[in-house]
């Protein structure tokens, strides 16, 4: 296992148990069985490690959501969306709880900006889902509907944070899908306009081919020989000198989509090529 990934996995276990602030670099290195020098070869600080873990956590969730928003059958899209949200939250519940707690307490500007950035990406996927589901019928209320969906996501996530009881994810997803459809059908008074949304927090950061190449090179260097690595290398070559049809590019991206270390790059590539 690559040492950077080992540190991230072991630190994740400690953070989930103790929280960010209560866990020291010394504890992390002891738990990993490495020296502090080895730690600082991978991460400049504990804060950098925390950001890397949040990146990994949010990238996987957002890439999964974006994929199903584009590819799920419209009739079950809302259910799939809510189920994916809460399945990921339940699967990583210990770390998700830590993130929610740290968000409410942190003064780390980089962490705050990072979470705002991912929040805007989630909004982008929700708006795409609304477009697929309802089209022009909800044009005037689409942003209010988007905030309502985010409200459902945030409010019901408290069931996982504050109550240690088994939850029926299927029933929860069906219930929230019904509530969302009722709002879409009967909401008549819009409040959030496109202009207001942009004033609140515009998302202007567009990914470039050069940035994707940098990501590809890093991932390729970390991966063992596999069909995913071969696909990554072909995608890198295509970015540098386009030779494949869009169908082949989609196939290569599909090859890497399910690999845990490739979810974000597949998300970036889908956005870059527009599929």
UniProtKB/TrEMBL annotation:
Q: Which InterPro entries match?
A: Homeodomain-like_sf, HTH-type_Tx_Regulator, HTH_TetR
Q: Does the keyword Repressor apply?
A: yes
GO MF term (any one)? DNA binding
**All copies of domain HTH tetR-type, residue ranges:** 1-61
Secretion signal, residue range per the UniProt entry = none
Q: Kindly indicate which segments of the sequence are annotated as binding DNA.
A: 24-43
Q: Which PROSITE patterns match?
A: HTH_TETR_2
Q: Which residues form a coiled coil?
A: none
**Keywords, A to Z?**
DNA-binding, Repressor
Task: State the protein's name.
Answer: TetR/AcrR family transcriptional regulator
């Amino acid at each position: 296992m690559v040492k950077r990934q080992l540190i991230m996995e072991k630190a994740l276990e400690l953070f989930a148990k103790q929280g960010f602030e209560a866990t020291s670099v010394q504890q992390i290195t002891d738990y990993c069985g490495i020296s502090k020098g080895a730690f600082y070869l991978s991460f400049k600080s504990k804060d950098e490690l925390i950001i890397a873990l949040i990146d990994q956590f949010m990238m996987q969730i957002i890439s999964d959501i974006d994929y199903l928003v584009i590819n799920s059958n419209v009739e079950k899209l809302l259910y799939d969306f809510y189920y994916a949200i809460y399945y990921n939250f339940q699967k990583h519940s210990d770390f998700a709880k830590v993130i929610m707690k740290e968000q409410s307490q942190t003064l780390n500007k980089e962490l705050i900006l990072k979470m705002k950035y991912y929040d805007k990406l989630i909004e982008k996927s929700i708006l795409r889902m609304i477009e697929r589901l309802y089209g022009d019928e909800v044009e005037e209320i689409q942003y209010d509907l988007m905030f309502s969906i985010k409200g459902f996501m945030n409010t019901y996530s408290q069931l996982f944070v504050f109550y240690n009881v088994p939850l029926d994810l299927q029933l929860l997803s069906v219930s929230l899908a019904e509530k969302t459809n009722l709002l879409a059908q009967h909401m008549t008074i819009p409040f959030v306009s496109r202009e207001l949304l942009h004033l609140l927090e515009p998302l202007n950061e567009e990914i470039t081919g050069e940035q994707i190449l940098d990501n590809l090179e890093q991932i390729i260097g970390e991966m063992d020989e596999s069909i995913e690595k071969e696909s990554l290398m072909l995608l890198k070559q295509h970015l540098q000198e386009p030779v494949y049809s869009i169908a082949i590019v989609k196939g290569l991206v599909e090859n890497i989509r399910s690999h845990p270390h490739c979810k974000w790059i597949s998300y970036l590539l889908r956005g870059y090529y527009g599929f």
